[in-house]
Design goal:
alpha/beta; 19% strand; 17 strands; single chain
């Protein structure tokens, strides 16, 4: 959609008259409001007698999330303390919008899209709809260009393409946030949009100052909604991140959109669904969760008109089970997944990427044939070593049983050194490709030598005896 088309769409969504209702009851996380004919998704504010008669600038705000008979169900962005029956509820936007502009770069926003970094107010912005119409399938272009991340294991073995959507799957404490921050600092994308959804408040500053750093923040937009905030703000933060990414994409930029994490987004949407009366389905998740996930994840991609959004979504795996509902649903939508291994992390192998459980569905389309062949060789070696790892560790593996395993054992230190990397040291994409191809060529040469050196199979004595006996009998 063009910039003018976006503005016209925004104007059509705005209300030109004031619509107001009154509070009837508060039920848990929601407020029942009568005489409020606004559609689901509308932004509203609450005004009590004291607020109308004072100069208070802060207001309690909420969103229409459903209906109960003639009453609108409004969920709050903050606590409900102080709200009383009869308070006025005034509609602000029938379809929510976000002010966007180049001024977002280097800024830290909350779930409402407002700065929380103490900097200047946002200026020179335009409004974009927070939840636009889905992107048409035929307006997307094929993904055929690589997007280097600066992480050797990913660029070599799980190569990303511009416009791809991929998930980082891991349990807590395996290095997911560190890997996301490393990619944010070292990626070749023009702009980073980072959404921290449901994070611990303590970890936000650590991520910004220690993991991301000033240089990473300078070309990033960070949206924060911590775990103690309203479920609405956590869901809204994800929408704000997508809208900001779409603004830079429409300017022709290659955007890296990172969300940590999709699981907490799903948990927030579950709370909203249960509040409006949805029946829980798989492991307590409501149907709206599985309807929202594809709508959110499909907002990434590359357009024929130029610009792209590469989506990198962290998925917090409950109990390290990759088949739990949110992980399973995400894998079915995304264009690949990067699985982090607690076993590798416990050995001090960082990034702890389990390459045999990871895949990029566009890797073969964005890499040349030399890279593809080298990657297949490396996967074959890693698979052979994994199958015999227990025998190798107890010293029961007999050399010569499997040429690929013999090669993997001989090159294991070199392979580990190639795949491990400090989060503060970026890897050059051309150099990584060259090292991978050289390592694969060395592996192929070593395998050829092992096969040539293997003794010829000795004759079967039983077969020979039978043959000799048969000859005598004849």
């Amino acid at each position: 959609m063009s910039v003018l088309g976006t503005q016209l769409d925004t104007l059509r969504r705005l209300r030109s008259i004031e619509v107001a209702g009154s509070v009837v009851a508060v039920r848990g996380l929601s407020v029942l409001v009568q005489y409020l004919p606004l559609p689901v998704g509308s932004l509203v504010r609450f005004e009590g007698p004291a607020r109308r008669n004072s100069m208070a600038t802060e207001s309690i705000r909420g969103e229409v999330v459903g209906f109960d008979g003639d009453h609108a169900v409004v969920m709050l962005f903050s606590g409900s303390a102080g709200i009383a029956p009869g308070w006025r509820v005034i509609g602000e936007q029938s379809a929510q919008t976000l002010p966007v502009g180049d001024c977002l770069l280097g800024r830290i926003l909350d779930g409402m899209g407002e700065p929380i970094d103490g900097g200047r107010p946002l200026a020179d912005t335009t409004l974009r709809p927070l939840d636009p119409a889905p992107t048409g399938a035929l307006t997307r272009r094929r993904i055929d260009e690589p997007l280097p991340t600066g992480v050797a294991a990913i660029d070599a073995m799980v190569t990303l393409g511009k416009g791809q959507r991929i998930g980082i799957f891991s349990g807590p404490g395996v290095g997911k946030s560190t890997l996301v921050a490393s990619i944010a600092r070292h990626t070749s994308a023009d702009v980073n949009v980072i959404a921290l959804i449901g994070e611990r408040g303590r970890e936000v500053r650590d991520f910004l100052e220690s993991a991301l750093g000033p240089e990473g923040l300078a070309r990033s937009v960070v949206i924060v909604a911590t775990g103690d905030e309203s479920p609405l703000l956590r869901v809204r933060a994800a929408m704000v991140a997508c809208t900001a990414a779409e603004y830079f994409r429409d300017l022709g930029a290659d955007v890296m959109l990172m969300m940590d994490s999709i699981t907490r987004f799903a948990q927030a949407q579950r709370q909203i669904g249960l509040t409006v009366g949805e029946q829980p389905a798989t492991k307590g998740y409501t149907p709206s969760v599985f309807a929202m996930m594809p709508r959110l994840l499909e907002r990434a991609g590359a357009l024929t008109s130029g610009g792209s959004i590469t989506g990198l979504y962290a998925v917090l795996v409950e109990g390290d089970d990759l088949n739990e509902p949110i992980s399973d649903a995400a894998r079915g939508i995304l264009d690949g997944h990067i699985a982090l291994s607690r076993k590798l992390a416990s050995r001090g192998h960082y990034p702890a990427i389990d390459l045999l459980e990871s895949i990029s569905r566009v890797a073969n389309d964005v890499c040349d044939q030399h890279h593809v062949q080298a990657r297949r060789t490396m996967v074959r070696l890693l698979s052979a070593y994994s199958e015999s790892e227990e025998l190798i560790n107890i010293g029961a593996y007999a050399r010569g049983s499997n040429p690929d395993c013999d090669v993997a054992i001989a090159l294991k230190p070199r392979i580990d050194q190639f795949l491990q990397q400090s989060s503060s040291e970026p890897a050059s994409y051309p150099m990584i490709c060259r090292q991978l191809i050289e390592l694969a060529a060395e592996a192929n040469d070593l395998r050829t030598k092992i096969e040539r050196a293997a003794p010829a199979a000795s004759p079967n004595p039983i077969t020979n005896t039978q043959n000799r006996g048969g000859s005598k009998a004849s």
